[in-house]
Specification:
472 residues; alpha+beta; Immunoglobulin-like; 24 strands; binds copper (II) ion
């Protein structure tokens, strides 16, 4: 403690008063971006300088990352080292109201709390294992000594139930990184053990980031009617999540018009996810290896975030309500059934009556598509098994959104206060800027390639006249 105070005063006098200014700025930033459990961070950080002051004037002056639906673990400064304590434990997790499960996570949540630090920080990470089996902790993407890499059996002994291990290293990079066990990974990740590790650049950002969001992608085999994710499933998952939540339980991404927004995305699921943003293009500005040189930035509207990868997307906010989602259509559904026969276009009326004689309440689905699913669910026609969610959910200002899973809305408004993250409701579109219904009879005959069918298609075998088929 004495040593730490001496270091502090030595550094403060040698480095003039710059640190005081930056500490004040950081305290303000924390206050302006309130998040659960972040309250204690500014005071503890203000008490001690970071271990390796770089002398950069902007050191530590960053916009705190906002983990959508999640939280950031407050560090404790001990002798100039930033300490974090993660506790691996069983938790009860709610994916959305009506769907809960026994999961494994850290410090009460899945994903675990986000760890946030600055390039050059010395960090000490305690990991306590309160699980019934051994675990370990891998710091995904971090440059560190081999023995701190957390591969159970390879770089360290496993952390047995009841034990606590300590990891300590200096952060020699910045960017979007992750943490997860490297022990019985198939089980421990399948049930939710993962988190984000965000490192801000010591020299500050080349372009000021006004809002810095972070999302961890995952998938869950939580079969309808069950309460524990199934770790043995490899492809047919039931829930697709941003920070372990499904739409519509996922918070909106909120920004003010003209602000520069970054969305950091990490993927510890079992699928690659093409993440798609409506509205403005974004620039992909970084990945696992940190922020890319500006010459490598590229404009996209969809970016694949591969398994085990991270990507940073940045854009200047444009007013409106813009969908932000995975473009794998099944990944914006909840609680998929996987062995459903394809009934699209099938007249099921006779079948439905026959089955209903044996299964009262049975309702055929999908004749004209699946949109009827949400309508039936919401009108109470279709009670599903317990502890599951409808495939399609969410009400928008114009009707059902028919979404689930990896979907949320970027809500950009002109009149938001800086640092206001409250959901502003639905966008008030300027007059004349909303698609609307017209009388099609005034439009004349649309140009078609082939004549429309004379009668609705049926599943009766129809003779095909091959001589009339056109190719090309
Ligand atoms: Cu996806």
């Amino acid at each position: 403690m004495t040593l730490s105070r001496r270091n502090w005063f030595g550094w403060a006098t040698a480095g003039a008063l710059a640190p005081l200014g930056l500490l004040a700025r950081r305290a303000f930033a924390q206050e302006a971006h309130p998040q659960p459990a972040q309250g204690a961070a500014p005071a503890t950080e203000a008490a001690t300088p970071a271990a390796q002051p770089t002398g950069a004037a902007a050191r530590g002056d960053y916009t705190p990352v906002r983990t959508l639906n999640g939280w950031t673990l407050p560090p404790r400064m001990v002798d100039g080292v930033k300490e974090f304590h993660l506790v691996a434990e069983e938790i009860e997790h709610e994916f959305a109201p009506g769907c809960v499960a026994k999961c494994w996570g850290y410090n009460g949540t899945t994903p675990g709390p986000t760890i946030e630090a600055v390039e050059g920080d010395r960090v000490r990470l305690y990991v306590t294992n309160n699980l019934p089996e051994h675990t370990s902790m891998h710091w995904h993407g971090l440059l560190l000594p081999s023995g701190m890499d957390g591969v159970g059996g390879l770089s360290q002994p496993h952390i047995k139930p009841g034990e606590t291990y300590v990891y300590e290293f200096t952060l020699r990079q910045h960017g979007t990184h992750m943490y997860h066990p490297h022990a019985d990974e198939m089980t421990q990740m399948a049930v939710g053990m993962m988190g984000l590790f965000i490192i801000h650049p010591a020299a500050g950002e080349p372009e000021r980031i006004d809002r810095d969001y972070a999302i961890l992608l995952h998938n869950w085999a939580l079969h309808p009617g069950t309460y524990r994710p199934d770790p043995s499933v490899m492809q047919d998952f039931d829930l697709w999540t941003f920070n372990s939540k499904v739409f519509p339980a996922i918070d909106a991404i909120v920004a003010r018009s003209g602000e520069r927004v970054r969305i950091r995305i990490g993927n510890l699921s079992m699928w690659n996810h093409p993440i798609h943003m409506h509205g403005p293009r974004f620039a992909v500005t970084g990945g696992d290896g940190g922020r890319w040189p500006r010459a490598l930035w590229r404009n996209e509207v969809t970016e694949i975030v591969g398994v085990g990868q991270t990507r940073d997307l940045e854009f200047v906010a444009v007013p409106g309500d813009w969908a932000f989602h995975c473009h794998m259509a099944h990944h914006t559904m909840n609680a998929m059934g996987h062995e459903i026969p394809n009934t699209l276009g099938v007249d099921q009326s006779g079948v439905e009556a026959k089955i209903r004689a044996m299964l009262p309440g049975y309702m055929a689905m999908g004749e004209t598509g699946m949109a009827e699913h949400q309508a039936h669910t919401e009108s109470g026609h279709m009670p599903g098994p317990e502890n599951t969610l409808p495939m399609m959910m969410g009400q928008g200002p114009f009707g059902p959104l028919e979404m689930g899973g990896m979907f949320t809305v970027i809500k950009v408004r002109d009149d938001l206060a800086r640092g206001d993250y409250a959901d502003p409701g639905w966008y008030a579109h300027p007059r004349g800027t909303v698609a609307s219904r017209v009388d099609a009879s005034t439009l004349g005959e649309p140009v078609r390639r082939v004549a429309p069918p004379r009668s609705p298609p049926t599943h009766e075998a129809t003779p095909v006249d091959h001589s009339k088929m056109h190719h090309g």
